[in-house]
Amino acid sequence: MLLKTLSEAFGPTGFEDDVRNVIRGELDGRVDEMNTDVLGNLIAVKGAKKPGPKVMLDAHMDEVGLMIVQICDGGAESGLLKFRALGGIDPRVLVSKPVLIGPDRIPGVIGAKPVHLQAPEERQKPIPMDKLYIDIGAKDAADAKAVVKPGDAAVFATRYAEFGDRAAKGKSFDDRVGCALLVEAMQTEVPYPLYGAFTVQEEIGLRGARAAAYQIQPDIAIALEGTVCFDVVGAPSHGQSTVFGKGPALTVQDAQTIADRRFAEFMWETAKRHGIPVQWRRVKGGSNDFGAIHRVGKGIVGGSISVPVRYIHAPTQVVSLDDVENAGRLLRAVLQEIAEGSFTL
Q1: What stretch or stretches form a coiled coil here (predicted)?
Q2: Is 225 one of the annotated binding-site residues?
Q3: Is 294 annotated as ligand-binding?
């Protein structure tokens, strides 16, 4: 299953090579051309010389992760690894989580002072990231330096699995779920130029998307994303950004974008015409690649289609496979209706 393969691929921000290789293998022979730019974005093209609006679909390949910044040398800490975050990670979710480090995927566990040894005041607040470390079972610094070096990246060692009622758990659904949708969409036949941008470094500032949009110069752009889903116990209805199992979400406003009203309503009405469940994303926080794309050049019309992800940016995330399926249905319907002239620039 492509979502499983993509979810388990190693691809923290700035180290997206493995994800890009998976995608390139999936699209080889199914698109007209593919190229990788200087930043590492993979851009797939179909029908570049066709008439009609140039449509860009976007999904980012990177995931939140960690970077090794020091190998402790001397004392009781010798051989332990200090790290910093790549992207937005809540330190509260890190303690005792297994990780894989560097090109050799060295296994490790994130450790901290045991609760038994913490002072009462320490127990009242999250352990800051600079007090955490990664234990790779090294006997000393020399042992650790033989397999890991500063600058190596790490990801959570979470395996994909399906469970419950059409649910899946794994790492990096933000945004491997979008990558899976985009791979599928690039195999669609449409009567206009279709560009698929698999971008890098979204988690540290939407960096790859800006460069990709500058190269493509699309007329219409759609970002495919995994978005915040907070619909669990204790969440007030007005704070439930999206609801699990209720379909893909369309954005009204986020930290980088106020939705193009015409295009957002076009996607909403397309969903309703095709009998596809859809919902509005109801909080402002967070953003996606469209926040960078729509500001390129003279401005670009478009929006985003997002799959709700519970426990986003955490070691284990959860999606509804129905939401994933319906996001794909909505994207295909939108591409079809653009071909039929239902949306004009």
Answers
A1: none
A2: yes
A3: no
pLDDT tens track for 130-140:
999 999 999 99
User: For the chain, which domains are there?
Assistant: 2-63+171-339 (3.40.630.10), 65-156 (2.40.30.40)
User: pLDDT for 194-241, tens place per residue?
Assistant: 999 999 999 999 999 999 999 999 999 999 999 988 755 555 555 558
What's the chain's Rg over C-alpha atoms? 21
Sign of torsion over alpha carbons 320, 322, 328, 334: negative
Q: CA 40, CA 38: separation in Å to the nearest integer?
A: 6
- Note the pTM of the prediction, 2 decimals: 0.94
Q: Establish whether 203 is an annotated binding residue.
A: yes
Comparing CA positions, the residue from 105, 98, 87, 84 lying closest to residue 148 is: 105
Pairing of strands 65-71, 42-46: unpaired
Contact between 12 and 174 under an 8 Å Cβ cutoff? The reply is no
202 is catalytic: yes
Q: Which of 202, 325, 337, 340 is catalytic?
A: 202
